[in-house]
Amino acid sequence: MHMKEQLAKIREEALEAIRNTDVDSALDAVRVKYLGKKGELTALLKQTGKLPAEERPVVGQMANEVRTALTDAIATQKKTLAASAMEMRLAAETVDVTIPGDRTELGHIHPLTKVVDEITDVFTGMGFEVADGPEIELAAYNFTRLNTEEGHPGREWTDTFYITEGHDDPKNDAVLLRSQTSPMQIRVMEQKQPPIRMIAPGRVFRKDEADATHSPMFHQIEGMVVDKGITMADLKGTLNEVVKALYGPDAVTRFRPHHFPFTEPSCEVDMQCFECKGKGCSVCKGEGWIELLGAGMIHPKVLEGCGIDTDVYSGWAFGMGVERLAMRRYGIKDLRLVFENDVRFLKQF
Ligand code: DAH
Fold it and tell me: Radius of gyration of the chain from Cα atoms?
């Protein structure tokens, strides 16, 4: 074949090969194949010396043209490859801002905590402090110093969770899970001289089988006022205000005589059913009244046991169960739901 034809063929083949490359490395291989030191075009040029003298310049010029054409084509193809690589990357990394996002679910306050917060707000608004204390208590605080002597049924191991050995004969220094928040009365009076106005919300524990209305762990709020000249009238006045703050100005209360070891006199406070106004309905179980709390004038023995002079000071106290209030407020039928933390239940509030 004549050298001119060979050059034309190389040109055709090389241009075709360049156009067909899809990555930089392939393009480089084509360049080496034709224009490299051992490339086809280079090899051909080496043979121009064998040509007749008159043909040499023509073939040399043509060879240079081919070299320039290939070099240009390679440069162009390099740009094309770079552009399409960029396009592919952009397409792959595109974010469709119109696709709806995932909603982050917001948590909220547990219904039980809501009720505790609400009641706490009413009392702190009246100048009460909030006290916190141990759930693991000594029998001395849970019972003895609350004037609850040995032999009281609450002290039995069948009623109370004892932690220390010998729980069937609970001694004064026995360690237990508090069965009421009342030991907080002693703990606060130990720390502080009157005037005292405090509430103590917290968990309490009793050996009750869990069912729709019982739980071995539940919540109480203890309250206590100790000052000069405190009477049953203060107790009634304060608790009436609290009930009105929680249930509205028309709420009606009733104070029934009762017995607690640590108060004398003692009472239970009921509120007229907010649903039926005393007629009797499913909320109050036909009673017309809803039991709210136990209360009374703090027994002199309890005050004196904390070094408080009963000639100068007197006080009242109360204890209320939180779960029953919350269940009534939110229409919760089964107490177990309150503690199971099933999201399907909690979402309702
Ligand atoms: N601790 C009592 C209970 O668990 C409730 C109670 C009644 C607390 C009268 C008081 C009170 O402070 O004065 O049943």
Answer: 45
Task: Give the closest residue to 202 by CA, choosing from 139, 272, 131.
Answer: 131
Closest CA to 223 of 210, 238, 213: 238
* CB neighbour list of residue 259: distance below 8 Å, 6 or more residues apart: 266
CB-CB contact of 253 with 275 (8 Å): no
Check if 274 has its Cβ closer than 6 Å to any atom of ligand 1.
no
- Predicted confidence (pLDDT) per residue in 36-48, tens digit: 999 988 888 888 8
Confidence of residue 320 (pLDDT cuts 50, 70, 90): very high
- The pairs formed by 289-294 with CB atoms below 8 angstroms and a separation of 24 or more are 289/254, 290/328, 291/324, 292/243, 292/253, 292/320, 292/325, 293/239, 293/268, 293/269, 293/318, 293/319, 293/320, 293/321, 294/258, 294/260, 294/263, 294/266, 294/267, 294/268, 294/269, 294/318, 294/319, 294/320
Structure tokens that stand for 137 in this block: 């208590």
For residue 224, give every residue at least 6 positions away whose Cβ sits within 8 Å of its Cβ, in sequence order, or none.
184, 185, 188, 196, 197, 198, 199, 298, 315, 316, 317, 318
Distance 262 CA to ligand 1 centre (A): 8
Are 298 and 223 in contact by the 8 Å Cβ rule? The answer is: no
- Which amino acid is residue 306, in one-letter code? C
Q: Among 142, 159, 180, which is best to mutate for testing ligand 1, by the most ligand atoms less than 8 A from CB?
A: 180
Ligand 1 atom having least distance to the Cα of 298: 13
Interval 88-107: pLDDT, tens: 999 999 998 999 989 888 88
State which ligand 1 atom lies nearest to the alpha carbon of 181.
Answer: 1
The answer to whether the CB of 212 falls within 8 A of the CB of 335 is yes
> Which of 260, 268, 299 to mutate to test ligand 1, by most ligand atoms within 8 A of the CB atom?
260
Say if ligand 1 is within 6 A of residue 183 CB.
no
The reply to whether ligand 1 has any atom less than 6 angstroms from the CB of 194 is no
CB 145 within 8 A of CB 188: no
Shortest-distance atom of ligand 1 to CA 296:
13
